[in-house]
Design a protein that fits this description.
Length: 179
């Protein structure tokens, strides 16, 4: 083989052929489509964790404020009905579960966007719309009418996480139940 033939043969083999490029693109497409559902699930779980962590931090703050101030502090939905619309922490000096005139708001959290919903499950006799801490830091129903046992369930795209409430406190769980 002459030197000229060797150079022209090398020049022809520099790039990829159209078939090779199409094959590489097809393989990349298959791998991407296989990874998308797992990425979507990971993003959903991350958003649920972030929402439950934010809510848990709010309850920890309310407990700390009740102890520091020596009075009842309550956590309730911002619109008094739906936890998904945001929530607030307020001093509840008369422990009635309602923010009366002169009882300051300590923290107000906006709604969590993107379809995340938060629903209370506290049994037939208690709505779970207001959760209160005593000056000693114990979680109770406003007015001192019993212990709080139940959960707030955060759901998004069929996945769920819960904040479970019992006499000893609050704990996050990676499912819709507290078991």
């Amino acid at each position: 083989m002459t030197r000229l033939q060797a150079l022209s043969s090398a020049a022809r083999q520099r790039g990829a052929s159209l078939i090779e490029a199409a094959l590489a693109t097809a393989i990349a497409g298959v791998l991407t489509s296989a990874a998308l559902p797992q990425m979507s699930d990971a993003l959903t779980q991350n958003r649920l964790r972030a929402g439950s962590s934010d809510l848990l931090a709010t309850f920890n703050l309310a407990r700390a404020e009740a102890i520091a101030r020596g009075t009842s502090v309550a956590v309730a939905p911002a619109d008094a009905r739906d936890w998904s619309g945001g929530w607030k922490v307020f001093v509840d000096s008369n422990d009635n579960g309602v923010q009366d005139a002169g009882e300051p708001t300590l923290v107000e959290r906006p709604a969590i966007t993107g379809g995340l919903s938060i629903r209370p499950y506290f049994g037939a006799t208690y709505s779970g719309r207001v959760l209160s801490y005593t000056p000693a830091g114990r979680l109770h129903r406003p007015g001192g009418q019993g212990l709080v046992i139940g959960r707030l369930v955060l759901t998004l795209d069929g996945a769920a996480r819960s904040l479970c409430f019992a006499s000893l406190g609050v704990r996050p769980v990676g499912s819709a139940t507290c078991e």
